[in-house]
Amino acid sequence: MEWQKENSNRMKEQAEEGLVILLRNWKKRQKRQRIYRILLSVILSISCMALTGMVYYYIDCSIPSVINVRAGQEESFHLGVPATGEIVSVSEQGRSNIPQGAVNIDLSRTVTLKAATESNYRMQVKLFGFLSFKNVDIRVIEDQELIPVGAPIGIYVKTDGILVVGTGEFQGSDGVSYSPGKYILRSGDYIRKVNGETVTEKDAFIELVEESGGKELRLTVERDGELMDLKVTPAKDAGGAYKIGVWVRDNAQGVGTMTYIDSQGNFGALGHGITDVDTSTLMHMEGGTLYQTDIVEIQKGSAGNPGEMTGMIIYSNDRILGDITDNSIRGIFGVCNQRALEMGVREALPIGLKQEIKEGPAQILCTVNGITKYYDVQITAVRLDHDNVNRGIELTVTDEDLLNVTGGIVQGMSGSPIIQNGRFIGAVTHVLVQDSAKGYGIFIENMLEH
Q1: CA distances for 58 relative to 81, 125, 341, angstroms
Q2: Would you name the residues annotated as active-site residues?
Q3: How far is CA 428 from the centre of its chain?
Q4: Is residue 434 a contact partner of residue 407, using CB atoms and an 8 Å limit?
Q5: Model confidence at 408, in pLDDT bands (50, 70, 90)?
Q6: CA distance 352 to 417
Q7: Residue 306 vs residues 165, 272, 417, 435, 436: alpha-carbon distances, Å
Q8: Mind listing the pLDDT tens digit for each residue in 192-216?
Q9: Dihedral over alpha carbons 263, 269, 273, 274 (to 10 degrees)
Q10: For residue 295, what are the CA distances in angstroms to 125, 145, 418?
Q11: What is the pTM of this model?
């Protein structure tokens, strides 16, 4: 009987232990399931936020911040986004003479606009008809024709002040390293005055430093658009000359392509600004000159190695093509002389607005082997509201003749006009480093905004 009792107790204990184990395993499963549910919820939330962000970015890129339309002509565009737009006019006083809610359009369909005269409007865009999204400026402009040029040009630009490229150390007469300008001047600074005296030439600035005799100098510097006075004390180097330990520049030269000449004899070129090679900042320009140039060598582009056109620039008066008056992110601009006007031998073409550009065949006008001619390209994408103003057009060179000579787009072709369906739509600006046959362009209307 005792054996049966012990056996019964043992079985009871085993059953209780088994029940405890089952309960423990059940709790573990419940805990794992809770963790899985939390992880799935987090992943789902992150995915929803990522998807929402992608949709938001896509819609934002599909709706340009500025839409230009021609006065007196019907202009159609198709954005294809789930949004509505309310149009109001914009006066100098900021008031609209269009009643609120009077003009509403469906941006998921093709929209046709027509305005009689030059004026400005604003379209208030609402996603799904109720969620405020962004404002779009609608500008009514006069139609314009430009002469496409596509010829190589030599560029000389004088900086507005002395550009600080960087700072460095030098060995003093006592064998100690000095760098007086370090932590005082920065790359990208423009030195405009020394002790109140205006300086425009690098050699004159160096001379003023050397003649300081080691006395403290007061430099008037422009930094990020603001003028400030800084003090620096030159030190004597091993050769006995006084220095402050900065690298400076007062000009820049290069080769590019002239884009267009307008009816007033003004030119536009490059499609992007002239930046300093060391600081990568847009150069502040005091003035500049355009020169006739000849391409003497073409280095063919390849994957990871952008090619280059090498031009010979002769800085003589009989080679001058005009004056550069503006250096902006949209290109360089100025006034042609008679020699430059003679380069505009082609027929003027009407401009094409960005909403008129289609993916598909187009041409670029550029000079290779001394001959200016059109070459075939394929427009692969049109970014109506791209963050980078110089990359609204994506294109691929398809012309075998151009590919055989240059490999596609090379440095020096910046500014080459882009033509589609008889309209002047833009200019080449950049090459894709990974594939020299591919590149980017700026909308011509963006160049004309300068």
Answers
A1: 9, 15, 43
A2: 272, 399, 414
A3: 12
A4: no
A5: very high
A6: 12
A7: 25, 17, 20, 8, 6
A8: 999 999 999 999 999 999 999 999 9
A9: -130
A10: 49, 28, 21
A11: 0.83
